[in-house]
Structures are given as structure tokens and as C-alpha cells.
């Protein structure tokens, strides 16, 4: 175990798995509907928390705030969640070197299923593009590219910050990745700042989750139909009425569009 786990005080079963040494903030964009052009992006603030032990967590700050506020409301018996902030562009929480060194852990949801995927940590095979420089966050960066997990990725990294880290699974360059995007620009992570938080842990919420593979996770995402859930609820005798934003009755919910960052 890369760091001693400690349970935080409170009603939630939250583990502090490491201490945050560096936090990089990325202004991020992603698109779910890849068929509609031009893309309709969703914006978010993604964070990469890194510990001195090599443990890191990549997550949506918006989703983290939403989850915290939702738990607080439910603990008070308030189940009206309409005033909560919108969820982030990526629902996953992605850990490197956890639950042990050389492993990764992804926590995500597929419909009603809470999933966890544990894998061996992989290193993309990068090609550094010569004569390519950019100034990002005041650091001189160089461009590298790789074909990884079904997408062609471009990453700007700086050797001024010698951390083998970056958004999501992107790593393996001689410096921190401050900007990354795929060739279709369906996912964009643009570094905005770095800080050194004092006393802030890298946390994990303990919950019942189904251990699945990436292949099974995609299958669950593709097969999810919210109308099946409504039918099951109706079978219990519950009266369910779904309304459009204009107040009219909605007979059927369209399947949510999704675009996984990992294609292979």
C-alpha cells in the first residue's frame, strides 16, 4: 500500500489514501454527442491531485462538489436535489498507483451500476515532435503524440516540473503534462494552475461496487435504458410522471448519449 489509509471522521465511509503534495487544475471540455457538428461541449474543472508517494487522483471538481452537497442534504432528510450544481463532464474518479504501486483504479457509474475497474498501470509509447514549443502556465512545453486506448493523443509537457503525471491515464513523459487533447478534440484538458495544498488528503469514498473489466463497463453503458428502470419502479405500484421542461407529460426518456474516453 503506497500510503497508510485513514478513515475520516463523519457518517461517510471516506478513506484518506495519501496526502496531496501537488494539485493541477485543468480547464476541461468534453462532448457526449459525437454525431452533431459542431460539437456541443460541456465544460468542467478537472483536478489532478498528486502525492509524494506517487499516488494520484484525477477527478471532476464539479462532480465532487455536487456529491458532497447531495450527501449533506440527504443526511438532513432533504431529498429535493433540484438545486444541486450540474455534474461534471466525466463521472469517473481515476487513481494511479492505487490500490498498490503499479496499479490503477477507476470508479464510475453505468446506469444504476456502481463500478470499479482495477488494472495494471500502462505507459503510452510517445513520439516527441521536434521544434514544437509552447508557453503554458509560464512553463516552456514540448509536444508529444501517441496512439493510446483507441485515440490519437497530443500532450504538451514541461521538463521544468519533473513529475511523471498527466490527466487520466496519460503519463510516461519526462515532465508534467499541462495540456492534452485527442485528435478529434472530443476531450480537452488545458492546465490553468498548480498549487501545493497543505493537509488535504487524496480521498476515496467506500461503497458497494461491482468489479468489472473495461469491456464489461462499456457493455453496461451501451445497454443502459432508463425506461427499464421506470418500468421496474412502476411494477412496485409507484405512480411515476415525467414532465418536459415546458410542463407537458413525457412518455419516454431518450437513452443518454455517452462518449467514453477509452475506446479500446
What's the gist of this structure?
With 264 residues, the protein is mainly β. The chain has helices spanning 61-75, 214-223, 226-235, and strands at 6-7, 14-19, 22-30, 42-50, 56-60, 93-96, 103-110, 113-120, 127-136, 139-148, 151-158, 176-182, 187-195, 201-205, 210-211, 242-243, 249-250.
Which SSEs are present, and which pair or pack?
Blueprint: E1 6-7, E2 14-19, E3 22-30, E4 42-50, E5 56-60, H1 61-75, E6 93-96, E7 103-110, E8 113-120, E9 127-136, E10 139-148, E11 151-158, E12 176-182, E13 187-195, E14 201-205, E15 210-211, H2 214-223, H3 226-235, E16 242-243, E17 249-250
Parallel strand pairs: 8-15
Antiparallel strand pairs: 1-2, 2-14, 3-4, 3-13, 4-5, 5-6, 6-7, 7-8, 9-10, 10-11, 11-12, 12-13, 16-17
Task: Describe the protein in words.
The chain is mainly beta and 264 residues long. The protein has 3 helices and 17 strands. The protein has helices at 61-75, 214-223, 226-235, and strands at residues 6-7, 14-19, 22-30, 42-50, 56-60, 93-96, 103-110, 113-120, 127-136, 139-148, 151-158, 176-182, 187-195, 201-205, 210-211, 242-243, 249-250. Residues 7-11 have low confidence and may be disordered. It comes from Xylanibacter ruminicola (strain ATCC 19189 / DSM 19721 / CIP 105475 / JCM 8958 / 23) (Prevotella ruminicola).
